[in-house]
C-alpha cells in the first residue's frame, strides 16, 4: 500500500524515501536440462610411443598320468647280494622325475652285528639325482641271554624320487647288498607275502 502511495506522490512531483530491504526469498525449483551442445573438434594425434616387448604366452600341455606296477606273490628270495626283482617302465619326458616304491617283507638274521641294504637301480646304476634310494636293516650282536638269531619278517618299503633320467625305456630294479663297514647277514625278501614295485612319472 505504501508503494502505491509513493508512486502517486512521485507522480505529483514529490519524492519518496527508500524503505528497508525485504527478507530474501527462497531458492526456486531447479531448471530443466539445456539442449546438448555440438560435438567438439577432434584432437590431434599424440606422440608415438616406445616399442613394446613381444610377450609370448606359454601354454602348458596337460599332464597325462604315467605309472606302472609290477607285483609278485611270495618271492621268498633268500639271496644276500644281488638283484631281487625288476620292472621295465616307459618314461615319457626327460625333464620329469620318477617316484619308485618297493613294498614287501624284509628280514635280516645273524649271530653277530650285521647290516644289509636294499636299494634301487635305474638302467643298472643307482640314482644320482640327487642321491641313491635305499633302506637298511641293522642287527646288533646278541647276548647269551637272548636269541641273537631271531627270525622276524616285516613288511617294509624302499621309496624315493629320482631325477635326471632320460625319456624312453628304463629298467628299474630292487637289489640287496651290504652296508659299508659292516659284514653281511642272512637276508630274505618277499617271504610268504605279496611284493610290489610301483613306478610313477611326475612333473618337475
From TrEMBL:
<feature type="domain" description="CTHRC1 C-terminal">
    <location>
        <begin position="62"/>
        <end position="199"/>
    </location>
</feature>
<dbReference type="InterPro" id="IPR057873">
    <property type="entry name" value="CTHRC1_C"/>
</dbReference>
<feature type="region of interest" description="Disordered">
    <location>
        <begin position="19"/>
        <end position="47"/>
    </location>
</feature>
<dbReference type="Pfam" id="PF25815">
    <property type="entry name" value="CTHRC1_C"/>
</dbReference>
<protein>
    <submittedName>
        <fullName>CTHR1 protein</fullName>
    </submittedName>
</protein>
Amino acid at each position: 500500500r505504501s508503494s502505491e502511495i509513493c508512486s502517486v506522490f512521485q507522480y505529483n512531483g514529490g519524492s519518496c524515501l527508500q524503505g528497508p530491504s525485504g527478507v530474501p526469498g527462497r531458492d526456486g525449483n531447479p531448471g530443466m536440462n539445456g539442449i546438448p551442445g555440438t560435438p567438439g573438434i577432434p584432437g590431434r594425434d599424440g606422440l608415438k610411443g616406445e616399442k613394446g616387448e613381444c610377450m609370448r604366452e606359454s601354454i602348458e600341455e596337460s599332464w597325462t598320468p604315467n605309472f606302472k606296477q609290477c607285483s609278485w606273490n611270495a618271492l621268498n628270495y633268500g639271496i644276500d647280494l644281488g638283484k631281487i626283482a625288476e620292472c621295465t617302465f616307459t618314461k615319457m619326458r626327460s625333464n620329469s622325475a620318477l617316484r619308485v616304491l618297493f613294498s614287501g617283507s624284509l628280514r635280516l638274521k645273524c649271530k653277530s652285528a650285521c647290516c644289509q641294504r636294499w636299494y634301487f637301480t635305474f638302467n643298472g646304476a643307482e640314482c644320482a639325482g640327487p642321491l641313491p634310494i635305499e633302506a637298511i636293516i641293522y642287527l646288533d650282536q646278541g647276548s647269551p641271554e637272548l636269541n641273537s638269531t631271531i627270525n622276524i619278517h616285516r613288511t617294509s618299503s624302499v621309496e624315493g624320487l629320482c631325477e635326471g633320467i632320460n625319456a624312453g625305456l628304463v629298467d628299474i630294479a630292487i637289489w640287496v647288498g651290504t652296508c659299508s663297514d659292516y659284514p653281511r647277514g642272512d637276508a630274505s625278501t618277499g617271504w610268504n607275502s605279496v611284493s610290489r614295485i610301483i613306478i610313477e612319472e611326475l612333473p618337475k
